Amino acid sequence: MSDEKDILILAIESSCDETAAAVVKNGRTVLSNVISSQIELHKLYGGVVPEIASRKHIEKINQVIGEALSDAGVTLDDLDAVGVTYGPGLVGALLVGVAEAKAISWAKKLPLVGVHHIEGHVSANYIENPDLEPPFLCLIVSGGHTHLVIVKDYGEFEILGKTRDDAAGEAFDKVARAIGLGYPGGPKIDKLSREGNPDAIPFPKAKLEDGPYDFSFSGVKSAVLNHINRCRMQGEPICEADIAASFQKSVVETLVEKAVAAAKAYGMDRLAIAGGVASNSTLRQAMERACEAEHIRFYHPSPIFCTDNAAMIGVAAYYEYRKGTRHGLDLNAVPNLKLGER
Ligand code: KG4
Ligand code: ZN
Residue limits of the Gcp-like domain (predicted)? Predict the structure, then answer.
């Protein structure tokens, strides 16, 4: 890399409820990572309200980009490209980032690189693990996705399995709401579980004979709701911490078992995790232990790079840029963009 010119990418992420911008150098060095979270606003409603998210992105985006540039000590004139999440996500939210990226690309005559949000999550693993290069196995667990994939090359995925109903994060959020923890549920269940007994309630783990690497979390979610209803009807006390810990145990064991089985079946000696749920402390510990036992090297981003951020989009944009991916000013938001689609 020494005699090559540095490649500086400004990345923008606005697919859900974080307005984020980052400057990334040569795909792996994060010069700045600014995240403006709307969680406090959406908490009032128990979940993300799309119209409010779009409006807040519009209010915040210029400020967030300005901060990302100044934190990195660069100006728009120093950049080599603009990367932006164009799907999947909330259409109105995505459009704010896409329109902003197109405006900067046009005004500064910079190449525009549209990025798949999930490709971004996977790429978060490259930031702190300089030795990690494809191929490797990756478990993607976010609010909208649960995918087990082989990362064959940068931005190239073979999907081994995915969820047939709820995503892992969605299940965390729904169970958290049922036990009165509020939004977003994942981090709250993670915390409350430390006070509970994971063996208190035997919640089920879905077995899918016809898709060993597929997932289903609607069963465990319904089991939690049934447990709460039964306790209420029989006048028994409800222990939220035990419910949280037992639910989390069921989900974590399923994720670890399937990911490790896939790694063994496909001869993968490296396994990474990605997405908001990848910041779950029990999942990280369980994955670490299981990988160690099977001599698999385990990779995970720091929690700040697991949940939505623009640094991960800058990393993915860099590898897309290197491959020659360029989007025109007709780039549109694609709310249901599939992984591997361009
Ligand atoms: O990747 P992400 O920030 O956004 C999407 O692309 O969906 O993931 C958000 C999801 C939410 O469902 C949130 O509850 C979950 O990740 N999450 C967690 C934790 N932190 C965030 N789930 C379990 N444990 C956590 N510590
Ligand atoms: Zn995400």
Answer: 29-314
